[in-house]
UniProtKB/TrEMBL annotation:
This is DUF1311 domain-containing protein. InterPro entries: LprI-like_N. Residues 65-159 form the Lysozyme inhibitor LprI-like N-terminal domain. Keywords: Signal. The lineage of its organism: Bacteria, Pseudomonadati, Pseudomonadota, Alphaproteobacteria, Hyphomicrobiales. PANTHER family: PERIPLASMIC PROTEIN, PERIPLASMIC PROTEIN-RELATED. The keyword rRNA processing does not apply. Residues 1-22 form the signal peptide.
Length: 168
């Protein structure tokens, strides 16, 4: 199976595994569609010789959510939209992690597992700092959600890149 088909299959599985209605900041099928379209567009542009990165997709679904959902531009709405997209990136991160478990040598995967076990508390502590930095201000929830989205998306992209290199 080619790498692009593997990624497309992984994305489809991630989408099918999620409910079609948002629950507790879980991504929706519409969020999935926006994210998958962006991922595929970046992949296609790269295949055509243009240089694009998946980090260009970070915020894609959250921005649409904020623009289209009632209350999306409120502090609570922005936080909810970002956490919805965060849940999509988190599912991709987990898929890429499981795919790496299948392709890496066991000792190398143990190194990745150890790194991942350290990365999660680091991300959480870093985002808690951003939350606490804003004190009692209303921006604290938005700062936390933005941090979680960015950190998780960047880690998912990093694992995706490692998987790409491992498949070569």
């Amino acid at each position: 199976m080619s790498l692009s088909k593997w990624i497309a299959t992984s994305l489809l599985v991630a989408g099918l595994a999620q409910p079609s209605v948002a629950q507790d900041n879980q991504f929706t099928m519409e969020d999935e569609m926006h994210m998958q379209n962006c991922w595929e567009a970046v992949t296609d542009m790269n295949l055509q010789g243009e240089e694009h990165t998946l980090d260009e997709c970070i915020g894609t679904a959250a921005e649409v959510c904020m623009e289209e959902e009632e209350g999306g531009m409120t502090t609570i709405g922005m936080s909810s939209c970002m956490m919805r997209e965060h849940s999509w990136w988190d599912s991709i991160l987990n898929i890429q992690y499981q795919n790496l478990k299948q392709v890496l040598e066991p000792a190398l995967f143990e190194d990745l597992r150890d790194a991942q076990r350290k990365w999660i508390p680091y991300r959480d502590a870093s985002c808690s700092f951003h939350y606490n930095y804003w004190g009692d201000g209303t921006m604290r929830s938005t700062a936390f959600a933005s941090c979680m989205l960015d950190a998780t998306a960047n880690r998912a992209i990093e694992l995706s890149n490692i998987l790409d290199m491992s498949m070569m």
